[in-house]
Amino acid sequence: MEKAKTDYRVEKDSIGTKDVPEDVYYGVQSLRAAENFHITGLNMHPEIINSLAYIKKAAAITNCEIGILDKKRAQAIVQACDEILSGKFHKDFIVDPIQGGAGTSLNMNANEVIANRAIEILGGHKGDYSIVNPNDHVNCGQSTNDVIPTAGKMTSLRLLKNLKKELLRLHKALCAKAEEFDHVIKMGRTQMQDAVPIRLGQEFHAYSVAIMRDIRRMDKAMDEMRSLNMGGTAVGTGVNADETYLRRIVPNLVEVSDMDFVQAFDLIDATQNLDPFVAVSGAIKACAVTLSKIANDLRLMSSGPRAGFGEINLPAKQNGSSIMPGKVNPVIPEVVNQVAFNIIGNDVTITMAAEAGQLELNAFEPIVFYCMFQSIDTLAYAVQTFVDNCVSGITANETRCRYLVENSVGIITAICPHVGYQKAADIAKKALKTGESVRSLILQEKLLAEDELDRILDPVNMTEPGIYGKDILLKKTEEK
């Protein structure tokens, strides 16, 4: 079958002329960037495309309000931006997420797509930039150096909103399990050794508290994303931006995007420093660490099922082996672990990229955004599957948990206040040596009456502070 012939238009930039396919909305600068940067093989994140459309729309409205851009062009640009926000023309954003030039390629890709669509709206042909020019009209009053950081912040906030929603679902699921398992006594462990009893519900409640702390930490970091350098243009001095534009651009962006932003107190600082992204990345990393630790605990408590801890059951989601029949692996906690490892690596990249900025600009925003968006998205997806395919379906092996408590020397700690440390230590050593239970040894040596021992080893008494401590102290006082 004969391949259809492609028609081209000739476009010109400061490098020279180049043939651009006639039917595409991107232009010569986007095409050069696509040819220069075959890095990830991935497309731009849809949300940063939308963020750019919001910025260009707000800029067109502002420039029209102050008389710099005529109404006809402004309306065409606004319509083109609205069409992008509805999902159109995303395929014409062809530059790689990782690119040289501090994001100029991405900014020009947006400028060219919007300009060419606006040209069509006004009855012209794509590439006729005398009608709507990517630089003079779409990019009016802007620079890559205020547009791209702003787009990165807008996108981060939108993605973080979804992540927070998933984390709140996880918090709710953990709280539900904490209540469900509140009566289940199990052996607590420190440094992987038997310690003192704890209720399974207490463990899950602790997980829920840690997740809520991560949410609050993230909320605080997100506030740093709300300060924008729009109007600062190239280095934050506002060169080539009208004074009224400078005052109006952020309020207009707030209005068109329905997001909460303020203009940065110092536009030069906000142009050259990326520490807000480091702060957000750090909060995401901390959350990933929390989740990975929880995943580790679930894998340990569910290990076995017969030759391990076997204290809880994770939902069986898929076969665990191609050779061992019946084996089921903790695949959901494992994927949470792996996402956490990747996020920790992304945080290092973001940190190094932010540190590597020089003088009035950081050229490495593309890699910061690539890693940031990946971290937020993957963490949200990991939390979603963690809730739906793991946490919500966990069950407790109550009998197994109780058996491990009753046959552990760890319960001697609860008896220590009643018989003294040295005698308790002797009982513990004997239990380890003979294999007998602590309970049976105490009864054999008649150190405590059976009813008193039952009271001391009651699950609630062993997992709450000081219930019988006051009684012991009172008894000793009376003896004196």
Q: What fraction, in percent, of the residue positions are helical?
A: 55-70%
Euclidean distance between termini CA atoms: 106 Å
Total beta-strand segments = 8
Largest beta sheet: what is the strand line-up? 1-2
Rounded mean pLDDT is 93
Number of domains: 3
Please outline the major beta sheet.
Answer: 2 strands, antiparallel
Could you describe the 3D structure shown?
- With 480 residues, this protein is mainly α.
- It has 3 domains: 133 residues, Fumarase/aspartase (N-terminal domain) (Fumarase C, Chain B, domain 1, Orthogonal Bundle), CATH 1.10.275; 212 residues, Up-down Bundle (Fumarase C, Chain A, domain 2); 73 residues, Orthogonal Bundle (Ribonucleotide Reductase Protein R1, domain 1).
- The chain is 59% helix and 7% strand.
- It has 19 helices and 8 strands.
- The protein has a two-stranded antiparallel ribbon with strand order 1-2.
- Strand 1 and strand 2 form a beta hairpin.
- Helix 2 crosses helix 8 and helix 6 packs parallel to helix 12.
- The N and C termini lie far apart (106 Å).
